[in-house]
Prior knowledge:
By secondary structure, the protein is mainly beta. The chain has a single domain, classed as Methylamine Dehydrogenase, Chain H. A hairpin with a 4-residue loop joins strand 27 and strand 28. This is 3-carboxymuconate cyclase.
Amino acid sequence: MASVAGCVHANGTNACPSGSGEASQVGKALYFQSNEQQNSIVSVPIGRDGKLHGGMVTATGGMGGAIIDGATNKPAGPDALSSQGSVVVIDKYLFAVNAGSNTLSMFKIDEADATSLSMIGEMAVVPGDFPVTVAASMKRNVVCVGYTGAKAGTSCASFTPEGLGPMKQVLDIELSQTTPPQGPTNTLAQVFFTADDTCLITTVKGDPNTNKTGFVSVLPFKDSWSSTFESHDVRSSPSGTAVLFGGVSIPNTSDLFITDASFGAALLSLNPTTDNVSLQRKIVIEGQKATCWAAYCQARESVFVTDAAEDRLIEISEDGSKILSILDLNNGDPGLIDLQISGRFVYALSPGNDTTPAAITVVDSFQGRQIQHFMLEKLGAGKRCQGMAILQ
């Protein structure tokens, strides 16, 4: 297998970084949520060497939650929310969903200490059931939440330095679910904005066992600077996809890179005129079991993906044409979920399970090796932890 190597040819593709500026960036702190009954944000400082150390825990004021695993009929864990982006950082603000109390929390990040969070105002009540994913736009001053219970859909609110405005539903998505929902299939996976901040993307997983088709929703803003959306979205089920999950918008293109738990990932093309989404490339990952999370690496112009049941990182070219590298971690984690990237460093969360503790693996993508396996037990994180964000 090819390793993630810097300045060498990996699987025939030049893997040198695109620029030393992006490569040298190191984030200030990493955040994820405990997702326990009393939900909390865990804040971990990032050192100049990219490694994690210490950490603080701050209550969100809300409750965590867990979907019902369709295979066991018990609360899921790991991957309790079956989503990407349950925590997001933008500028000096952090937003986190509380799946068990149908609320959204907003925090200000202290400029002197990035692990110190102060809640701003009151939690916003989400007009739906079981919120699992959040996206925020600083340009638009709008934050959107996707929820996937009995009342499923997406709602958005304005935000200011004083806090959150009221949530208003912008999408109604009929899933015929319960609260908590049964999954992981037939649930909402992620909300995120396109790279140019013109559209809100919502991914919904299909269920191959019941011939239920998943789709990508595209909801445009009304104009260049408005925080108001058009009245209707456009929904597409790209040919060959089945269980669309976490995604990223590729910078300077109209392409969406979205994982599909049934085969690996897909590069999708968003038509800026019709807002339809179509399949451009299908990326089949050999031996994959549940490829569900994706993060874009600016320094390498590539996308890294993780698998809930495989302890490895896979790097794919941003145009979806090649699997650039596969790094087997072999550190005892049962699998990886949410991941984030800062400069050359990749951070991947493993919630563990009933026998293996939660941990974050730090990888130097240029050297193609794990540089740290940071254990999370001391910070109170267990198999329900989810979401990941970085303050750059």
